[in-house]
Amino acid sequence: MTDLAATTLATGTLPGLPSRHWIDGGWHDAASGRTMESFDPGSGKAFASFARGDAADVQAAVDAALAAMTGRWRGITPSERGRILMRTAELIRANAEFYAVVECLDCGKPVGEARVDVASAARAFEYYAGACDKMHGLTIPLGHDYLAYSVNEPVGVTAHVIPWNYPISTTARGVAPALAAGCTVVAKPAEQTPLTALLLAETLKQAGLPDGVYNVVTGTGAEVGAPLVSHPGIAHVAFTGSVATGCSVMQAAARNVTSVTLELGGKSPAVVMADCDIETAAADILAAIYENAGQICSAAARVVIERAAQAEFLDRFVAGVRTLSLGHGLRNPRVGPVNSPNQLERISDFVEGARANGTEIVTGGSRTSDPDTGLGWFFEPTVLNNVKMSDRVAQNEIFGPVLCVQPFDDIEEAVAIANSTNFALVAGVYTSDFGTAHRLARDIDAGQVFINEYFAGGIEIPFGGNRHSGIGREKGLEGMRNYLRVKSVAARTSPRRTH
Q1: What is the average pLDDT value for the chain, to the nearest integer?
Q2: Cα–Cα dist 187/222, whole Å
Q3: Out of 183, 297, 306, 474, which one is annotated catalytic?
Q4: Which domains does the chain have, with CATH numbers?
Q5: I need a surface site. Which of 252, 387, 417, 443 has the fewest CB within 10 A?
């Protein structure tokens, strides 16, 4: 890792980076011959180029995936699929340092966080490797003269539209269960972060995955994403991104009666009761909002705190914020850059709007740069205090290192504040009273609730949101059900009697 990071910081790039589509088991230039650049958020400079695809490349990838569904892949047993996925997990771990440096360079996050993401990707393949031969059907009792049963079948070709904030781990959490179910895949990584989805292609082939089962087409959402999700050959779309784009994806998929899983973000509350360990809660939430520079759909973006504990919490939290180091991800700071100039502008707009409205900015609140180079796209870790439920910063997903603090006086008010946005992805609860904890878990509208540890759990726990946070669940065995369809068979086993 030290050598890889040093080489990359010195040269501004890294040898061995993929630059073309992966279709039908091999590398292919874009049909148009066009390319586009990938930028290092830590420096703001381009470090790689890659194929800029369009509908022609999507068609080639879907054709390859359709052919693979009826080819060798169909005849591979579930147990052998499991062995392929397990070998994939092992190969990811064997190349984890290279994967982590590429992920850090492509999306900007500190390399220590990128290592965790790579480990998470390997664990996803390992988990679903064990599920391949266990998603069995049922027998249904109809009586002595009948045999009835259900069979789980792969849905077909699946499309995966991958976000830029967690490229490798989001790729794995969708692709691994799809392959485990026996589906084939066309992946479209974000144009800001295409590289680790492409690296995964060669890893899967090395693990024994047949050609055409996993395909990657790179490019923009308009030129690749739109024709992919609207393609009649796609049986299921897994999309992670904004609400507006998710609605467009759902509309496009509906024209072909294609099912969707949508993970569309959040404005998640962390409810802090005065009886909790305030020091632990402050440290936990510090990581839960500033990891990946706050660019996390499930970030603890709002602290909903009992008023009696507000001052102590803020003292401890702000003291923690002021210890956070900023810098290029390859130097492994506590907080890295945001992903793009557009994202930096969005964060700044929200904070400046709050400033203009008289919101108290306890710390942070400004753009900044890498202290070592003066380069890159950075925003200071920021705390906004006494934010009202109706404020723009409380209602919208900022997707940056900005925490909103919202005090309450009783548990009913805490629930009302927690449920006051259109989002319902995750929530955190901090209390020493388990009765209170489970009451809040019951009453807060969220797809997942963490008690006394934000981000508790892993690939085993179903993940997804309600309302504007999306449709369906990923991770766990629930995530694999997205890629299976049920066929029922009913047979009469004895002749009909005639009178």
Answers
A1: 96
A2: 15
A3: 297
A4: 2-264 (3.40.605.10), 269-457 (3.40.309.10)
A5: 443
